[in-house]
Amino acid sequence: MSVKIRGGLNEMDVCGKKLLILGGSKLMEVIVNKARSMGVFTIVTDNRPISSAPVKLLADEYRDIDFSDYDAIKRLINDLHIDGVMTGFSDADLEKYLRICEDNNLPCYGGKKQFLIATDKSAFKKACVESGVPVIPGITAANVQDAKAFVEKIGFP
User: Quick one: which H or E segment has residue 21?
Assistant: First the structure.
């Protein structure tokens, strides 16, 4: 089976590629299943037990490595000749994912700025305002009095 993915002017055959998936929670099941259906060899890494990381059992292979152990992840990527890294569904893991991709010269589906916008409510709201997307009025209150004054001024939504 050969699956083609179009990306701009380039076309890449992903069948037979190796994908390291960071995290083995139930939410990662869709990523593992989709990758495997495309002929991609999947390796899940998660230092938690199978009861907390059940997707390890769905992957072609798994490792009990915490993905904040950057040196161990780098060795794994080099030893297994991994072609790509993927994570999803957990904002807390995006910074680690980005670092792993950068440290290993692998593509990443976002950058520092995009992940900041995705994980920081103030940065997200600012990006919306700058892009002309309406947002609910709000402030960052330094104390309870400031918050109360703001609510009295605009009311509750």
Answer: strand 18-22
Count of beta carbons in the 10 Å neighbourhood of residue 27: 12
Sign of the dihedral through C-alpha 47, 48, 49, 50: negative
Do 25 and 49 meet the contact criterion of CB atoms below 8 Å apart? no
Cβ neighbours of 45 (radius 10 Å): 26
pLDDT digits (tens, 9 = 90+) for 70-93: 999 999 999 999 999 999 877 888
Among 43, 51, 61, smallest CA distance to 25 is for 51
Give the amino acid at 83: D
Cα–Cα distance, 110 to 144 (Å, whole number)? 36
- Find out whether 110 and 82 touch, Cβ atoms under 8 Å: no
Query: Using one digit for the tens of pLDDT, what is the confidence trace for 101-144?
Result: 999 999 999 999 988 888 888 888 999 999 999 998 777 788 99
Residue 59: Cβ-neighbour burial (10 angstroms; 0-12, 13-18, 19+): buried
Q: Of 43, 52, 94, nearest to 72 (Cα)?
A: 43
Q: In what order do the strands lie in the sheet with 18-22?
A: 61-63, 41-45, 18-22, 84-86
The amino acid present at 78, given as its one-letter code, is N
pTM of the model: 0.77
